[in-house]
Automatic annotation (TrEMBL):
Residues 1-29 form the NAD(P)-binding domain. InterPro entries: NAD(P)-bd_dom. It comes from the Eukaryota. This is NAD(P)-binding domain-containing protein. It comes from Rotaria socialis. GO terms for molecular function: catalytic activity.
């Protein structure tokens, strides 16, 4: 899996700002994967 993104265009065109940092996003994704693996180790 691959996650690539640059929010600069959304910031400029839509006046959008991310609510969390990239580091926080990664933490949330890893935590979700851990929960999934605990429920189903073959997932």
């Amino acid at each position: 899996d691959l996650l690539i993104g640059n929010p600069k265009k959304a910031e400029e065109k839509l006046n959008w700002k991310p609510k969390i940092t990239f580091k926080e996003l990664v933490k949330e994704m890893v935590a979700a994967d851990i929960v999934l693996m605990k429920r189903d180790p073959t997932a």
